[in-house]
Amino acid sequence: MTNMNSKYRQAIKTLSDNLPFTPDIAIVLGSGLGDLADKLHKIKSIPTTEIPGYPKSTVHGHKGFIHFAEYDSRKILLFQGRIHFYEGYDIPECLLPVYLIHKTGCKKVILTNAAGGVNPSFVPGDLMLIDAFYTFNIKKELSRFLRKISGEQKNSFLDFPSRKISETIKLASLKSGVFLQHGSYWFGKGPSYETKAEIQMMLKLGIDAVGMSTAHEAVYAKYLGMEVGGISLITNYAAGLSPTKLSHQEVIDTANEAKDRFEKLVKNTFSLL
Ligand code: HPA
After folding, report:
1. What are 152-207's pLDDT values in tens digits?
2. Does ligand 1 lie within 6 Å of residue 114's CB atom?
3. Which of 70, 155, 209, 249 is in the most buried spot, having the most CB atoms within 10 Å?
4. What is the CATH T-level fold of the domain 2-272, as seen in this structure?
């Protein structure tokens, strides 16, 4: 049985020994979005290399720090760097950050990512509130994991993503003047970007954005009883929708250009939650 408690006992202990507070909200920062952590008043930072068993992020733009910080009297837990399935990690490894968030007693989490825009009205630099997740591509692995830990064949996900967090993010967008798209997020296993044909299929299905993270983290966070919200930064036109060849550098460059708006939106969300 995949028991996260016994597998990650040392990791949990290291985190609880270093816990300065019970966070009001946690956020996982996606590709190129990690700088938010440096804009808040940090109380404590732990390199993930100091957490026993914590997988090492191998992707450029993912630093590998856990920060405890404050903003507008909110207590915030930030994960600067994420673990991807395409890096070769298994589901328990990918989901360790979510499990650790849960173990701190935190009840709300915002998951962020960089994504390709499929919706023809999206342009690189847009921020998108995730209002639905497509988990098909990870369903087998995720269901097997959830069945092992819960013993249940079927799990249901109502109020997912959380209506309360989503409404708060929308309000934060109005308050901060940061334009916000909204739409659905398709999980692709990666590591390659999609084929043109796959993007054409997504267009026909009305899918809005595609990425290689977040969906399984969101499902697990909900399973653990947390309220979950999601924000994508559209960093590029999805494959075949523009003449440019996709690259991770384009993702990072767009994230750099858009990060001030992302940070404004997220800080306003913290204040309103
Ligand atoms: N596809 C998948 N993942 C991504 C993309 C994309 O176009 N952009 C950023 N992450």
Report:
1. 888 888 889 999 999 999 999 999 999 999 999 999 999 999 999 999 999 999 99
2. yes
3. 209
4. Rossmann fold (3.40.50)
